[in-house]
Write a structure and sequence with these properties.
By secondary structure, this protein is of the alpha+beta class. It has 4 helices and 3 strands; from the N terminus they run αβααββα. A hairpin with a 2-residue loop joins strand 2 and strand 3.
Amino acid sequence: MENQGKTTMQNLRAIGTEMFQGYPDVLNLEEMSELLQISTKTGRRLLNNGEIRSFRIGRSYRIPKQHLIS
């Protein structure tokens, strides 16, 4: 049963990796929101709450694609 859970996680990561193709390695707020199909307001809330790891350059958020995949 535990092995099945690992296989499911591997499948989800593979699907997620395909979904992220065509996007840069470091996303801005608008790109992240488009990719996740959420509003920028919701995206900003997720970043401010620390639910998605990011860093800031000046007033702009930068989100490494790997943080969304994991």
